[in-house]
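thread: overnight batch results

M.L. [08:02]
morning all. the overnight job finished for the chain we discussed friday. pasting input first so we're all looking at the same thing
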Amino acid sequence: MRNTLQTPLLLLMVVVGVVLLIACANVASLMLARGAVRQREMAVRLAVGASRRRLAGQLLVESLLLSLTGGLAGLAFAFGCVRLLLGFVPRYGQQLALTVSPDVRLFAFAFVVSAATGVVFGLAPALQSTRPDLVTALKAEAAASTGGRVTLRKALVVGQVALALLLLVGAGLFVRTLQHLGSVDLGFRPERTVVVDIDPSRNGYKGQRLRDFYERLRAEVQRVPGIRSVALATITPLSGMSWTRT
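M.L. [08:03]
and the structure it wrote out:
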């Protein structure tokens, strides 16, 4: 199961990482805009003796609180939906041996990612907001933003658009792949075909008694009106299973 699920889960993690970058760039743009609104406040605090390092630290703490709150919300949403998603995983009559309970490693990973995004994407807005032109900012009608801040916001918007375009192209290719898979010649006609999975051994059938049960089952199902043919198989077509023993 690990070999089967590892590749699609890694691909899913990459997609989620790109979405996270888009969200972080968006939040960084909003924080830059908020910094422009607070430009006069920062100028006043700098003028009365506050150090730039102290103000940047305060803004960085605000960014960390925002990112950690988002991380907790993401964990809560994930735990609420994971069992719903597991209902879509085919089981083929077997128990699904997946552990979805939260553990220390999961919380540690979520904390590290949330803290890292909060620091990386909050550092630039914090530095930009604590570097105002005191004379201009203290005027009653100071400009809402500086050239450097506007340039950074433009760069963030360009990055968002580029990452979103990457996801859209990938999603389009994925949809086309699914459409092509739907038209693949399977080598047999799947219409009006029913596959039923059973395991009589759970009810105590074994040996000759089990073989007699299968023969009796096939004969009785064959007599049902509308049934054209019946077959017994250990592995059914397109089930994703394979026989690895001689």
